[in-house]
Design a protein that fits this description.
By secondary structure, the chain is an all-alpha fold. The chain contains 6 helices and no strands.
């Protein structure tokens, strides 16, 4: 994350971008480029402004990490391009190592959200039936054939992944501030 003087300001900017992206994703099922690409440019620029060229590389590295991990899910049609770009925007503020943590936590949050949506909307039983059909097919034929979900199934619905990215990023920010507080406390004990 950015250095002390701009840490709080950059954190507020990141949270505003994530909140706006989540709101638009919930209401319109899309994330505007002004938020995702603008967020990337802003995060990289802030890093460059506070730390020069090494900061620029840090912001760019965070962008690449966030996007690279989400890219396979986009290519497999598991998420939209806006989600990939939004994770890149979050990564631009966080830097590579923290972007890795935020991406992992965002994927976990998305998985939990998907399970909750399936349970609440009654989509878990059809999902289990399709997986059971895959297992039976493998037992009898030694081939893996996975039947796609029917168009009416909950599993075919899109859900706002910006919310999962927001949760994963906020959890990362919380973790970073908790670790900073813990390290400050331990340094105080040592002195």
């Amino acid at each position: 994350m950015l250095e002390d003087a701009t840490f709080h300001g950059s954190t507020v900017l990141l949270l505003v971008i994530l909140a706006a992206a989540t709101w638009t994703d919930l209401n319109y099922h899309r994330i505007p480029n002004v938020l995702s690409l603008g967020g990337m440019i802003l995060g990289i620029a802030l890093h460059g402004w506070t730390a020069g060229f090494p900061g620029f590389v840090t912001g760019l590295g965070g962008t690449v990490v966030g996007m690279a991990i989400f890219l396979p899910f986009y290519l497999a049609h598991g998420m939209g391009a806006g989600d990939v770009k939004l994770m890149g925007a979050a990564g631009s503020f966080l830097g590579p190592q923290n972007a890795l943590l935020a991406t992992g936590l965002s994927l976990a949050a998305g998985g939990i959200m998907a399970i909750i949506i399936l349970l609440v909307r009654g989509g878990f039983t059809p999902l289990l039936k399709r997986y059971w059909a895959t297992i039976k097919c493998f037992i009898y034929t030694r081939r893996i054939v996975h039947p796609p979900p029917a168009v009416w199934e909950v599993a075919t619905m899109k859900f706002p992944y910006a919310a999962a990215i927001g949760i994963g990023t906020v959890a990362t920010l919380w973790w970073l501030t908790t670790l900073q507080g813990l390290s400050d406390f331990l340094l105080l004990l040592i002195r």
